[in-house]
Amino acid sequence: MNFDKIFENNKGWIAQKLENNPAYFDDLSAGQAPEVLYIGCSDSRVTAEEMMGAKPGEVFVHRNIANMIPNSDLNVQSVINYAVQHLKVNHIVVCGHYECGGIRSAMAQSDLGILNPWLRNIRDVYRLHKDELNGIEDANERYKKFTEINVYEQCINAMKTAEVQKAYAERGLKVHGWIFDIHNGNIVDLKIDIDERMKDIQSIYKLV
Ligand code: CO
Asked: Which domains are assigned to the chain?
C-alpha cells in the first residue's frame, strides 16, 4: 500500500463530498445520531458501512476478532453502554462471517499465546453447543454452523446487559444476528426472535 496515495485519496474524497454538498463537513461535525450499533469482525474484507450501503453518521461500529461480546471485556461493554444508553440506538447488529480466522483458530489445536484467552471465549461457545456441532460430519458445514451459533451466542451476551434489557422494555430495541457470506457478498439474517430470546434469557439474567 502506497501511503502517499492514502493522503491523495483523502483529498479526492473531500473534494467529492464538498462537490455534492458544500456543508458536508459542517453537518458531519455537528454531531451523531446513529440508529444502529454494528458489532462485527476486524477482518479486513468485511467492511461494515460499505456492505450495508451506510453513510457516515448512520452506524456506530465496533469490531474485534470474531465479533465477540465477552461479558468481562470493558471495550465492547463500554461501546454497548454508550451506544444504547447515550446515543439511543434502536438496533444492535452482531455480524459474523464465513472464512473467519478467529473461528477457524478456535477450532484448531494450537497455543497462540496472548490470543488464547480471547479464543477461549469462542471455544466456550463450542462447548455449549458441542453435541449439535460434533453431530455435523462435514468439517466445512460444522465450521459454518459454528460461525452462526457464535453470532447467536453473542446476541445473547448483548441481551444479558442491563442497558439492552432496559432499552428493549422502554423502546423496543432490537438485536439482530447476521452472517456476511464472503463467498457471494450476501448478508444473511439469522432471524433471531428477540421476544422469545429475551424471555428465555431473563429467566436467569433479568436485571431490570
Ligand atoms: Co473474522
From this structure: 1-30 (no CATH), 32-205 (3.40.1050.10)
Residue 66 Ramachandran class (φ > 0 left, ψ -120 to 50 alpha, else beta)? left
CA-to-CA distance for 178 and 92, rounded, in angstroms?
A: 11
Is residue 176 within 8 A of residue 92, CB to CB? The reply is: yes
Beta 59-64 vs 174-180: how paired, if at all? unpaired
Q: How far is CA 67 from CA 56, 122, 177, in A?
A: 21, 10, 11
Give the Å distance between the CA of 33 and the centre of ligand 1: 27
| Cα(19) to centroid(ligand 1), Å | 36
Position 1 scores a pLDDT of: 85
C-alpha dihedral, 80 to 83 to 86 to 87, nearest 10°: -170
Report which of 172, 119, 171, 173 is spatially closest to residue 150, judged by C-alpha positions: 119
Of the candidates 34, 42, 37, which has an alpha carbon nearest to the alpha carbon of residue 58? 34
Question: pLDDT-based confidence at 3, cuts 50/70/90?
Answer: very high
Q: What is the DSSP letter of 93?
A: E
Q: Note residues around ion ligand 1 (Cβ under 5 angstroms).
A: 41, 43, 100, 102
What is the total residue count of the chain?
A: 208
Kindly list the catalytic residues.
41, 43, 45, 97, 100
